[in-house]
């Protein structure tokens, strides 16, 4: 039994429900285990601890009660009626090293007001969620290691399948969604036999497992784990498990938090995710996915060089060698004034847009379900006067107030900028002075997401919204451009060819 809270809106919220046993002590680096039943009524009126993590991204705003390895909890927001209502399970972003399910931008109350049971899920991060090691593989019944964070998500989906009817949810209509690492997680769960048959739909915002942050061979993961143990000054799994969580976190950050990759473990991933999608073995469900128009800054291509044609061509030569001329052809800059935009487009594609494109492309070819693609371009407005002068955060938010000059107005939609709009949570973000245009975009984007969750097609029945057609496999396709005036545009031939070219370069490791 759990006892939640009835919000002022009438929505019922249940926070901090355990979906797996605390992964501590001997359960550190094990697949999630069943929850020990409790007696009586468990209060579910507050968020439990967030996963172990360093303060990496300044725009994250946790409402959790502290931080702990004991973090495997989920939160449910449900309409007041009996349902059955379709279900949304949302996975947070943060590069698999940060984030938690309590962040206001992921809050499910607004989605519940639209007739959806919304769920947010904690999962293990960094060394706690993705360490692979030969000793861990030897002790596991499936003879592999790593992927604990992904296994946490799969366990949460199993929990939702078994229990969501109690909250008025329809267990046959579960859509998973997420942004950045959360979007990568969505594509990963679609590829796993542990989860793929639980799903009715999927939404991906900027990122997929078919990219730079993909799964590595188990041996490679185990080698990284061995190197980590050596850097920690221990020689056995027992010694690693005996380390306190804070010490383990500190050592992992010095070792390099992004060195703990998902693994092709033969269990969560039976084979390389690229092969799974290419052969159509992923979940055969409708997919809605896209990315923002300024996912990464142009300096990721140019470094500290001034944005001019000469420096840009030199950067392309470093990145692509013999293909540098073709790179310039697909990301052209007629003069110095055009370089910043061209390098921004390339940086965003290399960072995360290409992997999202790859996901859309291959799923549209190997799934027998429709795929819908978007391009999000609404810049955030100016910051509120209360923020004073501030420094933009790495994930598009704000890191801290400073005495520096006020940052220039945003020219594009940076990585993660769309989350509050899609989830209907603009008002919860007090950093920005939201305008009527922002709320228009939010209503539009959320309406498309809501209808997709309910029907598998994003276009609402009302004529207030443009019809959103599905992707045409292997051809220039219609794309929903989400902005103040949202509209469908057919993908230009040049853009289609650009992604075909970039696909060849990325798949060869350039």
Automatic annotation (TrEMBL):
Its EC number is 3.1.1.-. Transmembrane segments: none annotated. Keywords: Hydrolase. Residues 6-494 form the Carboxylesterase type B domain. It comes from the Bacteria. GO terms for molecular function: carboxylic ester hydrolase activity. SUPFAM superfamilies: alpha/beta-Hydrolases (SSF53474). InterPro entries: AB_hydrolase_fold, AChE-related_enzymes, CarbesteraseB, Carboxylesterase_B_AS, Carboxylesterase_B_CS. Belongs to the type-B carboxylesterase/lipase family. This is Carboxylic ester hydrolase.
